[in-house]
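Dear support,

I submitted the protein below through the web form. The confirmation email said the job was done, but the results page showed an empty box. After a refresh the structure appeared. I'm attaching both so you can tell me whether what I see now is the final result or a partial one.
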Amino acid sequence: MVTELVRDATTAPSLHNAQPWAFVFRSADGVLELHADPSRQLPYTDPGGRALHISCGAALFTLRVAIAHRGREAEVSLLPDPARPGLLASVRVRRTPHADADLDDLYPAVHRRHTSRYPFADTRVPQEVWDALAEAARAEGALLVVPGPWHVQAVLGLTEDAQWFDAEERGRADELDRWTRLGRYASDVAVDGVPDYAFGPHPRAGGAVVRDFSAGRTVAGRGTADFESAPQLALLGTADDTPMAWLRSGQALQRVLLLATCHDLAVGLSSQALERGELRWAARDPLSAMQHVQMVLRLGYGPTGPRSPRRGVREVLTIR
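What the results page shows now:
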């Protein structure tokens, strides 16, 4: 069962699809450990490891969902050993007569959820769905705030600024090149990174908080498209900005994403403006209790996007 659980967990999203996680199953006591894989941390884009922790938190939440789906209960300890900061969580799978039904209900979305970089329809997301997504974030110790029109424009402006800054930094450009897969052969054999078929069209008009993975390179058949004139954004954030808060943010993010998928919403993720301290502070909503924005989400009705590749379980799981 451990193999199946880890396979489900690795469907979680990660920055540049770097998949910065490693699992260790201790067969002697039945504990599954989640470790950070420092070789997959992005030193220019994510020097402090915030995105790494969020990605691993998303994988941890998916693991919890997979455990509940199999009629078990996950006993989770976050950052269990201060002497080993790379050990992000330990999970003990227990039998239970009452598995978490709310988590189990999310399981059908685990393999359906994909990050979308395509335009969405102008159809508005119903308020009751926003409320449910906000409650999902709260259940994991985070906040989900829907910014007003002026704040949406501010976030769009910050994202545009970040794109210009990124283009001027050689280190970030090289990092983006490392984690993108251009060309038919590279895309077909990729097990990580962002293949060109997942870039989405180049925005011709509208407000798009979509990272341009092509970075000025020609991508055959990519095309252009008009994005939403009034994108529906949500800010996911926390009161603290620590590794513990990042892990909780990742779990909250994945809970929101899976629930949104269950509501037939497509979701795009954006962190470009949050990767720079001088821009990140301006993204927060001053009217909310959210002190630190951890992720910008774009939600709507439209293409869910293609499935990005994943490494095989043998590459990410060690059994001892």
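Response: this is the final, complete result; the empty box was a page-load delay. The CA atoms of residues 206 and 229 lie 4 Å apart.
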